[in-house]
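Quick one: structure tokens for this chain, please?
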Amino acid sequence: MRKATKTAVSALLTASFVMSICSCDLIKDKAPDEVLDAAETYAKNVAACDLGKLKKLSDDDFDKKTEDWEALLDFREGDIYNDNAAAFASAVADTITYEIDEESVEASTKKGSGSVDVIFTMADYEDLLEDEEITDIDALTDAIADADTQEIKVTLEFEGEDGTWLVTNYTKVFDKVYVFTDTTEITYRTPLADLYSGTVWYDSDDGNGSYTNTFYIWCQISFSGDVSASDVYYTISYGGSEIYTDSYMYDECYFDIDSTGAPLDDSNSYLAAGDYTITFYDSYDDSVIAVETATVSLDIADPTPTAPSSSSSGDLMYLSDYSGHEGEIQYYDNAASDSADFVGIIDTDFTGWYDPETDYSNFGIYTSDSTQIQFSVSTITEYEGMTFKVFYLPDGLVDNSTDITGRIEPELNYYNGFPYYDCTIDISDYGSGYYVIGIYSAEATDQWPSIVSVCQVM
């Protein structure tokens, strides 16, 4: 009887032990599912660049470890981004998507830790930043929206307690996903055609590029922004052919009878009649900024100017009547034994009449209140022995001229490293009329000037 009882108790204990084992196997750890749910919420807010919500899903050190990210994820122009970079970052952020790799999850309630891989996808923007065909921010953001994508794999690491799982490695995640925030400045060069604001003609008959009996055409181009001298060049075409190129200009086109390729009339005194097409180019890509046309007409009443010959006022005049010829300059390289060498070192582009008060070219026209006139000879090297004298012609006629200076030496000055010989004349005792200047080389006599030019005081 006692034996039977012992057997029954043993069977009962065995059954209890088996049930205990089965009970443990049937209890599943909820940690992996909880981590997947937490990862879904976290990845969604990483893609949205929502730092405020990410803070609530991260450990207590979040504020201290991410203090720089608040500004970096604020995609507005300011201390971090310029306007283009802010638009770029926002455009890239808009392309971020994600996918949870559920098979990679590892988590344990007992250990209080877990991890899962997330694949973030966004626009592959690197090549777009270097694309020279993209010339403005709108084109860049459009290209980002249509770009191929790149994948960035990160592992979210969690710590959990009582079913709450918080990310601990957010700084590593941010560094990998938000790498596009490294681009904080994007600058595009504005095409000069977009900055072009107009052209002004000087000394033309109608202010719009029409000239009669002229030895130069002159216009100035203007822009709404800063443009340097090397940013622009221009060409001049005449009769269907390009005749002149200036590859380095300040802000103007000046072309005269002494310019290379200049077509002249039969007297060789004026630019030939016809249309001169001036095309301004952007040096960056040779694109056209503007096209202007100067129209030159001829109405010649006087005979062709000749070389200096004897007259009642000395061998200075090359015309008998200077009226209407203000600003004209004649060069003679056979006037004396060294005259050819002298004329050879003259920079004709910067030789001419100037206003002594403003130091600007006026091309031979002074107002009636002027008390001084000035002719400046620009040379490429210093030249000793140059002299000049000036004749006053009240009505422009040589027969009524008066030598008002005698032979005097000009004053040597320097501008941009080059010598300028300024011939300044006090005309306060004479007033309106024409003034003819003769410039003499070192070995010239009074009868043979190397340069002759005329201005008018009106």
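Residues 11-25, 302-314 have pLDDT under 50 and may be disordered.
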